[in-house]
Amino acid sequence: xWAGFAGVYSDTVEMMLDAELSFAAVxxxxxxxxxVGQCSLTVAATVSGHAxxxxxxxxICEILxxxxxxxxxxxxxxxxxxxxxxxxxxxxxxxRATTTGEDTVVRxxxxxxxxxxxxxxxxxxxxxxxxxxxxxxxxxxxxxxxxRSVAFPEQDAENADG
Length: 162
Fold this sequence. Notes:
Strand content: 35-45%
Distance between the termini: 43 Å
Shape: elongated
Helix content: 25-40%
CATH architecture: 3-Layer(aba) Sandwich
Mean pLDDT: 85
Radius of gyration: 18 Å
Strand order of the largest sheet: 1-2-6-5-4-3
Largest sheet: 6 strands, antiparallel
Number of strands: 6
């Protein structure tokens, strides 16, 4: 089973390493009938230099709407403003990593949420990607719950105890 996923996630793992991610996970879920649904979740933080979270979210939304093929939407999460981008792509899995011995085209879908930190000039980027299109709704719901749980403590990190 694992060999079949290697080709699909090799590009994702390369991207994770290059981006110096804060968190990365690959989930495999039993969806019944001996089948598995899989997705990856990454979290990265980067310096953004924004003056306010609202300005950052508005700017990101505007830029992505003009330059990306993704479906872009501004969100208001419990932690503040954010931008949602949903896109798809095709990946060719090398024949050496397939059970058929032939190159295989796999369609993936990605849900990315960019959240400007309200406490400083940083941007958190949450990305969920899956080739399991039949489970897109389940994974989207899971990502929605994750995004509702995001919080930015107001305590100054330099003065934090412990």
